[in-house]
Every structure is written in structure tokens, then in C-alpha cells.
Amino acid sequence: MKSLRTFLRRHTFGQLFAYWLDQIAGITVRWIPGYTGFVLRTLWYKLTFRSLRGIALVLPNVVIEHSYGMAVGRNFRVNYGCYFDARGGITFGDDVLIGPQCVIVSSSHDTTAKSIHDGPRALIPPTLGAVSVGHNVWLGAHVTVIGECLIGNNSIIAAGAVVVDDIPENCVAGGTPARVLRRIE
Residue 58 sits in a domain of what CATH number? Predict the structure, then answer.
């Protein structure tokens, strides 16, 4: 009961309602193929995202939870099968391309020794950390971005990378955890 009270205190009624709508209407909209699907998803995201400038070209089977935390620039393109948890906030700049099966999570679970004794792990409130993706960024297939981090402008994240720290501008990064592989001149 204590965790439920904490959860309710951390979220406004509007956020809880938006999350519920994400789950109900989002399930319907996310599966519609073709041009009709693109139009309906863009309209849906205009209503539920914190902000959406321009058109979001999001392919089917993309799951966005806590969409009230998403801020998206122009020319936002997302491939099949991606998952975004935006409860801690996710910001995308202009001209962002996201490959298939990417995961971006702006929350995590407390891993301190004290939290182990606070009760079931599923009931411990998450720690939130905003993710910021700059302008003209390409995330390759199966990239995972976890927690509070910044991906700089004009960067490329190689397929399969796990980003847990900031990535500077104008570079190619890859690996687990992701590190700069080379600069882009």
C-alpha cells in the first residue's frame, strides 16, 4: 500500500490518465499499417506527447509507454519493434532515425543494498533519469539506451550498442557499454 501511495504521489492525474490512454488507444493505433497508420499515429502522438514538432514517421509495432514524457523534433523516424519508456523524459532533436528493435528507457530500479530490504522489488518506485538525443542522430538496430544520458548532435550509435553514459557530438559510438569508436569530421 505504501508503494501505491508513493506511485500516486509521483504522478499527476493527467499523467495517469495519459498512461491509461496509451495502453488502451495506443494498442489499437500501433498496429495499423500503411499511410492510414502513419496519419493516425501522428495525430495520436500530437495529443499525448509533451511536444511533437512536425510529423512522426513511426512504423507499426512500436510501443511507447508514458508518452507524456516524450518531446520530439521534426523528421522523427522510428523503425519496427522499438520500445520507449518515457516516464523520466525522452527528448529527440530534429532529423532522428531509429533502427528496428531499439529500446530507450528513462527509468531504472534502485539497486542499493537498502532497497533489497524495502519489500518486493516490483513495488519499489523507479528512479527517473531523462534521456536526450540530439539533432541528426542515427541509432542502429537493437540499440539500448538506459537511464540519464545525452547523445550529442550528428552522432551514430552502432547496432547492438548499450548506451549508459553521455556520447559526445560528431562521433560514431558502439559496444557494451557504448564508447566513442571514431570522430566524424
Answer: 2.160.10.10
